Amino acid sequence: MSIRLIVGLGNPGPEYEQTRHNAGFWLVDNLANTLPGCRLQRESRYNAMLAKTTISGKEVWLLEPLTFMNRSGQSVGALARFFKIKPEEVLVVHDELDLAPGVAKLKKGGSSGGHNGLKDITAALGTQDYWRLRLGIGHPRNLQSQQAVADFVLHRPRKEEQPLIDESIDKSLRIIPQVVEGKFDVAMMQLHTA
């Protein structure tokens, strides 16, 4: 089984562009920029930024929903249904409160962990059985902050956190070819031990 759809999660609009919740967009933007001739374009049918590209000789869709985070499943579900993409062929890239900045983890399935984007995608796909690439952004309680989680994810990373998040995105980009080829164990070992 290989990955046919890579989804980056975030919120649309310039006011959210640099916020922690947009880490999934950051990775997909970086991925598109590294692929020859790949340009994300607005596709109103899916209410998303969309590109069709080739990675490791396989056709892959890159998708950034332009709905707000809690409605991400609309775009993902519509595209997956139209192109008959199975849940296990979907990789969702998202910010992860339970991982420190600089840490990235790949896993299949599991709960949404309170992440509204994942909740909506799970509802749209009818299963939790899709792949997730979790980009650590840290948690306010680990930073001795009283900031509410909803407020925390909608702010920019602190000056010292941004390079760590960028580094985890770089590490993650290096395993995308293996993930697309379905070499999940190899990808996980490389990502989790890097």
UniProtKB/TrEMBL annotation:
Top-level lineage group: Bacteria
Record-marked site positions (Discriminates between blocked and unblocked aminoacyl-tRNA): 11
UniProt site positions, description: Stabilizes the basic form of H active site to accept a proton: 95
Enzyme nomenclature, EC number: 3.1.1.29
GO molecular function, one term: peptidyl-tRNA hydrolase activity
Active-site residues, Swiss-Prot/TrEMBL: 21
Pfam families referenced in this protein's UniProt entry, alphabetically: Pept_tRNA_hydro
Keywords: Cytoplasm, Hydrolase, RNA-binding, tRNA-binding
Binding annotation for tRNA: 16, 68, 70, 116
InterPro entries the UniProt entry points to: Pept_tRNA_hydro, Pept_tRNA_hydro_CS, Pept_tRNA_hydro_sf
Main location: cytoplasm
Reactions mediated catalytically: an N-acyl-L-alpha-aminoacyl-tRNA + H2O = an N-acyl-L-amino acid + a tRNA + H(+)
Compartment(s) of residence: Cytoplasm
Family of this protein: Belongs to the PTH family.
Role summary: Hydrolyzes ribosome-free peptidyl-tRNAs (with 1 or more amino acids incorporated), which drop off the ribosome during protein synthesis, or as a result of ribosome stalling. Catalyzes the release of premature peptidyl moieties from peptidyl-tRNA molecules trapped in stalled 50S ribosomal subunits, and thus maintains levels of free tRNAs and 50S ribosomes.
Complexes and interactors: Monomer.
NCBIfam families hit by this protein: pth
The protein, known as: Peptidyl-tRNA hydrolase
Annotated gene: pth
